[in-house]
Amino acid sequence: MTTVKTKLDRRSFIRSSALAGGGLLLTFSWLAPACTTDSPKQLTMPDEWYELNGFLKIGNNGAVTIMSPNPEIGQNVKTSMPMIVADELDVDWKFVMVEQAPLNTDIFTRQLAGGSQSIRQGWNGLRMAGATGRRMLREAAAHEWKVPVDEITTEAGVLYHKNSGKEAGYGEMASAAAELTVPEEVELKDIKDFTIIGTSRKNVDGQKIVTGKPLFGLDYKAEGMLIAMIEHPPAFGMKLKSFDATEAKAMPGIIDVFSIKTYNDDYQMQWSDVTAFTELVAVVGKSTWEVMNAKLMLNVEWEPIAEDNAQGVPAGFESTADHYKKMEEAAAKAGREQRRDGNPEEAFKNAAKVIERTYTAPFQAHSPMEPMNFFADVKDDFALLAGPTQTPEFMEKTVAARLGLPLEKVDVQMTRMGGGFGRRLYGHFMVEAAVISQQVKAPVKLIYSREDDMSYGIYRPAYHALYRAALDADNNLIGFHVRMGGIPESPLHANRFPAGSVDNYLAESFTVESNISTGAFRAPGSNFNAVAEQSFLDEVAEAAGKDPIQFRLDLLKRAQENPVGSNNDYDAARYAGVLEQVREKSGWDTNSEGKNRGVAAYFCHNSYVANVVDIANKDGKQVIEKVYASVDCGIVVNPDAAVNMTEGSIVDGIGHAMYSELTFSEGQPEQNNFDMYRLIRHAEAPKEIEVHFVENNIDPTGLGEPPYPPVMGALANALYKANGERYYHQPFVKNSIG
Amino acid sequence: MAVFNLNINGKQHEVDVDPSTPMLWVLRDHLDLVGTKFGCGIAQCGACTILVNGVATRSCITFVDSVGDKEITTIEGLSENGDHALQKAWIEEDVPQCGYCQSGQIMNAAGLLNANPSPSDEEIEMAMHGNICRCGTYTRIKKAIKTAANS
């Protein structure tokens, strides 16, 4: 048992919950019964709720409401975070209801969906919240029964005093418990005593999803709500010059057409703001279809942005061919040195064999299935916003600054998100919705069409990597060199494997500037590193005449036993662990005969994942028969959901390596919908995916991103086995630069 | 604008809209049936799938004036209590991640099972090819369709 200091004080009580404060909501219910298989009717609402701390309320009938603090984007935190609270509270999951918490950073930490950090950074706080509730209930029972608190035990929402034979449900003690002072320290359960963590629990929103209940930002509706859409410049490097709204305004159902500025002139941007298109034309009307039609009638003139614009955005119109040329030129010169071990130049000079390969990857659009949208109702002294955002805390600040309202006068409510993958970290659309609502003095839901969404992206940057390896006469890897860059950022992680396992190592980065808006895309940087590096290591292993898994394990053994350098940011033993597990589970040593198999492993966002991909040649086509995954993310909170996340990441990784590419011509994205921009579809998914977790008692780490990158490398290596072709350039369906 | 009497989920609904309005927006904006999702607007993603006389149809390109008295079924009307075999299978396999595309996936699968109650893996893949799941839940969707078909 561990005793921890509580960090909950009186401030940790929610004064107005989303339910109570949501007077405008017509159709939204924020409550989700945890047990979706049983009829929700089994959960009767209590007459009275007693709040023990900001994370949980207990009803007089024993029902429990647990707040899910973080935005739900499909990573399943709305189920898994409350599971952690419920376990420490020691309640039966079927009496739990989950409520999306309001944005309240006094109580909740890091209410952000990104970096695969929700569970990792939430872990201690969630456990403490549950344990604090349990302690207060035990204290209330001890007081009532006049026995020492240490003699009170709990099980599944019931308090017991063994010696006297007394027992009471949590509901009976909730009122008294809520009056108690929050304890200064509480005991946490031993891992072996977990009853909910480590057991599979179904998605708390599952029943609502399969019955089409309103859940997403796009489903939000309020009385008197208008629909708004925006027209943005058609190309990066352009801005609004003038517009004539006469025809658009005359269209049926149209309320107003006007231009908006996303930021005030003197505004200091933060990381979640976007510089690309800061002046837009807004069309506001009564219904979506009417607004879409009116938008077609706009007459807008655009002009190139100034060379010396205030935001420092480079002028000019960029094209994909130029992008690759610029990266190639940059990669031909020495980059910014990020790490050096030993004497790499000497190693390459003395090498018996040098292998050099170049890898590239294109811009990609996040394309979550729910297009960007947000609801805003801006009054003179208060603004309510609701919708899908990965960064409510940051964007609340931007919105408040734009409206000139104090932060406490802006309320941002989080709806379930129809995906994000990083796109909704950048909430310009929230500001746009707020400004439009302020202008028309009415509640407004801003909707992006798919074309708006794809052509005003915050794209995955384009990347380029040059890898070199030096082998000695005995085929030992004596030198490793990576020069990696991108537009506009380098994806290099200089201190990751194979750094630490090679005596002579050099990592350099370069960047090429651009006016195309880019940002974090599922597993930023890693989503390219993994495929380039793991494909390269496969070639190096082949050149060295070694088995690709054993080759990696030998390097990791070196990194574990006698690491080169001191700042290697991975645990070589855990890295080797997933490779060893995937070797065993896939029958790599025993069952590879006649199979076209590729392997890869990668570490990012604090978790370790290895894959084996099996490809069959059928009728002249390559079919992905099976993918094995081995994952080490510490304690697995919700195993089946973790399997689902891993399966989805594998499909997503294969899809983006294989098919997805956004190209530019004269600053204009050449794909703006799914007829031209290709995402993986049903028949292209692997026929079977088998997921294994390394079992340990390490505090949990993230899973939204780590299973995404490595499969791309394993895919490239399996394709090579299947058709003899190495894959250097994404998308693999083209496998040629640009 | 024109008045249309629509047969949706077994009930008559009257709407007064532009005849060129896609059923997607009639359902979402005018009838508050928001289970039918907007994804692409050009019949490329399947998020807006409904049944028209039992056939899976993309509501984003199905104009209201083309519907007449055909029977429209949306995810809200697939079953009375959310217990259609497909809905139960979706819960049993815990298919959704973000969940946004899933009502379209379910409605498309319902159209498939109407036409072919015991589809093979290949038939499922072909029939579901027009429905994108950006989270990549395809393997679970296939499993859930088979579970429903066998129930």
From TrEMBL, chain A:
PROSITE patterns: TAT. It comes from the Bacteria. One of its GO terms (molecular function) is oxidoreductase activity. Residues 1-34 form the signal peptide. Pfam families: MoCoBD_1, MoCoBD_2. Keywords: Signal. Residues 211-306 form the Aldehyde oxidase/xanthine dehydrogenase a/b hammerhead domain. The keyword Flavoprotein does not apply. InterPro entries: Ald_Oxase/Xan_DH_a/b, AldOxase/xan_DH_MoCoBD1, AldOxase/xan_DH_MoCoBD2, AldOxase/xan_DH_Mopterin-bd_sf, N-heterocyclic_Hydroxylase, OxRdtase_Mopterin-bd_su_IorB, TAT_signal. The keyword Signal applies. This is Isoquinoline 1-oxidoreductase.
Automatic annotation (TrEMBL), chain B:
The keyword Iron-sulfur applies. One of its GO terms (molecular function) is metal ion binding. The keyword Iron applies. It comes from the Bacteria. Residues 2-78 form the 2Fe-2S ferredoxin-type domain. Coiled coil: none annotated. Pfam families: Fer2 (PF00111), Fer2_2 (PF01799). Keywords: 2Fe-2S, Iron, Iron-sulfur, Metal-binding, Oxidoreductase. InterPro entries: 2Fe-2S-bd, 2Fe-2S-bd_dom_sf, 2Fe-2S_ferredoxin-like_sf, 2Fe-2S_ferredoxin-type, 2Fe2S_fd_BS, Beta-grasp_dom_sf, Diverse_Oxidoreductases. This is (2Fe-2S)-binding protein.
